[in-house]
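Researcher: Re-running this chain for the archive, since the previous output was lost when a drive failed. Same request as before.
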Amino acid sequence: MVILLPLLGYSHANFAESSHDNGIATKFKPIAQSPIIPSTQVNNSSSNQAKKFLLDVPLIKQNPELKYGCEVTSLTMMLQFAGVNTNKMELFSKIKKDPDAIQRSRSGDIIRWGNPNDGFVGDMTGKTAGYAVFDQPMEDLVNDYLPDRAVNLTNQSFDEVLKHVAHGYPVVVWTTGDFRLPDRPESWLHGNQIIHTPLDLHAVVLVGFDEKFVYINDPLAGKKQHAVDKQQFHTSWLALKSRAISYH
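Model: Regenerated structure tokens:
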């Protein structure tokens, strides 16, 4: 049984010298709550047909403007679904940025750079090196548009993330560009910290699931409700520290 909820709303793997993955803020309108799927709409028959939840979240592509903007583009999809009048370039201008510029060794290795826990690292447009932003700055941005409604599901179980989707809320999640285990580890200094992180990461919007698959909106591939093996996706999500952002 498919439950369709109506619309109200570069992968970091290709890191290079011009390296990761549309604007002035306007007041947003009052937001209608996203619908909750009542249990009566779930297939409770004795058949073997699996439950399937699918949200009709708008697809937005990050390119060509935001080569490394998979996070803010994914967040734009989620906020538009929630009824917020915004676009990817507005979120690009508003997301916190870590100001630390990249420093490289003579051989080209990264010596120093920013912390994606503090803000976006590098240049999101790809004109110069760019990387990523993690969940806390994204949570802060959600609360700017939906005050006190951000939900940070980071480090929750994957079942909790899927339950949130089943309740009618898309979730921005961090994975890899091919939804497999990351294989490009990197580290650099940030102040007195050492940042350990994979370069081959990506952010997408989790919009549905069934017994075997999860369904995502991918801002890099430009695919809507794209099916990915659930176990494979879960494994890659765990490897990216189980990061997930949504709202209620």
